[in-house]
From TrEMBL:
This is Phosphomannomutase. Signal peptide: none annotated. Keywords: Isomerase, Magnesium, Metal-binding, Phosphoprotein. Residues 380-454 form the Alpha-D-phosphohexomutase C-terminal domain. Its cofactor is Mg(2+). PANTHER family: PHOSPHOMANNOMUTASE. GO terms for molecular function: phosphomannomutase activity. Pfam families: PGM_PMM_I, PGM_PMM_II, PGM_PMM_III, PGM_PMM_IV. It comes from Streptomyces pseudovenezuelae. Residues 11-136, 161-260, 270-375 form the Alpha-D-phosphohexomutase alpha/beta/alpha domain. Its EC number is 5.4.2.8. It is an enzyme of class 5 (isomerase).
Length: 458
């Protein structure tokens, strides 16, 4: 098999997924090798694949299917879908899955998010390294010829089943009518929202629902404040009850209230945690990463649950969800994980919980979330540094002997006092340190944030 690009797989295979520029870093022949390697590593005799709306996605997805089928494996293609719709298919069909998307990255990128049967994660420690090594080995020779027959490639529609499954997990039958603006960012939310919301007492105001992997309106990354400006304006213009923005592959959702003000993902985590605990009789473990707000563990305890703190990153959260038998998990990055969704993340299910909570009472969203948003956070602040470990050591030295301070290194460095905390952690892929700080009031947060930034940027 002729190789078409000089592939450097170490740049392409990340901690949780495959991601790079098409065709410069990878293309369809390499996708075919990944398909063959994926089925070898998972030992599957059948898999499911799906893809987003990027121009390169259908071709890459089909090449991966060809590579898998050549190894004698049957492939079910669900076609255009959100990442959580692919997780649904992996869970419901009990098959390993591969989703072709680069989430919120620019148009020239594409990638693969892979999972084992039941949507169990495939990351660096759970098979991704082996997949990469096999693909590297086969770059020259091509994948080995299988001894048996070729697998089949068939198509299956899963959108309606996915929507029905989500709707079975949240009771929206008796909510009051709501007006909701949804910004799909020309991503997969434009494909899934109409079906999931169908028949609900919602007036839907769609924004950028046309599937367009060149992202003509704005990046499909709602964590960047620049990308929700259109949504905020529209919510105010429409006098809507709330706004929801999805990222490119629609696995994350970001919420703004009736004033167009962003609702922190920590407040959404706390709100959904309270609802999931109520569904489970006031018992259960809730996972949260170490840079969610103090509000999250407080609300979990107040509602009878047990909070468990973990590192940042979806493979850690999913592994901890499974290990602890947790009912729900949330991250500051607007990823929300549900036991009833195979421990996988689904922004759509979190959005339905917000709609049910808001529609189940008469007040505004800002009033509803105020009880879950108790502290003042800095948001994540990135700083480029020459030596990450040197700056972390300097911060540790500055704080470790102060009165009333606790320190831990679960993920980077977390310093906690009675009135504030901050975490500084290094990026795995860039020369950055990421700061998150929180305090009981604005003045304290500003003071702590600026002190730590001075040390980081010294």
């Amino acid at each position: 098999m002729g190789w078409t690009v000089a592939a450097d797989l170490s740049q392409l295979v990340k901690a949780y997924d495959v991601r790079g520029v098409v065709p410069d870093q990878w293309d369809e022949p390499l996708a075919e090798l990944f398909g063959a390697a994926f089925v070898r590593v998972t030992g599957a005799d059948a898999i499911v694949t799906g893809h987003d709306m990027r121009p390169s996605s259908p071709g890459l997805s089909r090449a991966f299917a060809r590579g898998a089928a050549a190894q004698g494996v049957d492939v079910t293609e669900i076609g255009l879908c959100s990442t959580d719709q692919l997780y649904y298919a992996s869970g419901a069909l009990n098959l390993p899955g591969a989703m072709f998307t680069a989430s919120h990255n620019p148009a020239q990128y594409n990638g693969i998010k892979m999972c084992r049967a039941g949507a169990a994660p495939v990351g660096q420690d759970t098979g991704l390294v082996e997949i990469r090594e096999l693909a590297e080995e086969w770059l020259e020779s091509g994948a080995p010829e299988p001894t048996g027959k070729l697998g089949t490639i068939t198509q299956r529609e899963t959108l309606s089943d996915y929507a029905a499954h989500l709707r079975s997990l949240v009771d929206l039958t008796s909510i009051r009518p709501l007006k909701v603006v949804v910004d799909a960012g020309n991503g997969m939310g434009g494909h899934t929202v109409p079906t999931v919301f169908e028949g609900l007492p919602l007036t839907l105001v769609p924004m950028y629902f046309e599937l367009d992997g060149t992202f003509p309106n704005h990046e499909a990354n709602p964590l960047d404040p620049a990308n929700i400006v259109d949504l905020q304006l529209r919510v105010r213009e429409e006098h809507a009850d709330l706004g929801i923005a999805f990222d490119g592959d629609a696995d994350r959702c970001f919420v703004v209230d009736e004033r167009g003000e962003p609702v922190s993902p920590s407040a959404i985590t706390a709100l959904v945690a309270a609802r999931e605990l109520a569904r489970n009789g006031g018992k259960g473990i809730v996972i949260h990463n170490l840079i969610t707000s103090w509000s999250v563990p407080e609300v979990v305890r107040e509602n009878g649950g047990t909070p468990v703190r973990t590192r940042v990153g979806h493979s850690f959260i999913k592994a901890e969800m499974a290990r602890a038998g947790a009912i729900f998990g949330g991250e500051h990055s607007a990823h929300y994980y549900f036991k009833d969704f195979w421990n996988a993340d689904t922004g759509m299910l979190a959005a339905l919980h917000v709609l049910a909570a808001l529609g189940g009472q008469e007040g505004t969203l800002s009033a509803l979330v105020a009880q879950y948003d108790r502290y003042v956070g800095s948001g994540e602040i990135n700083s480029t540094v020459a030596d990450q470990q040197d700056r972390l050591a300097a911060i540790k030295t500055a704080y470790e002997n102060a009165d009333g301070i606790t320190l831990d290194t679960l993920d980077g460095l977390t310093i906690t006092s009675t009135d504030w905390w901050f975490n500084v952690r290094p990026s795995n892929t860039e020369p950055l340190l990421r700061l998150n700080a929180e305090a009981r009031d604005e003045a304290t947060m500003t003071k702590v944030r600026d002190e730590v930034l001075a040390l980081i940027r010294a």
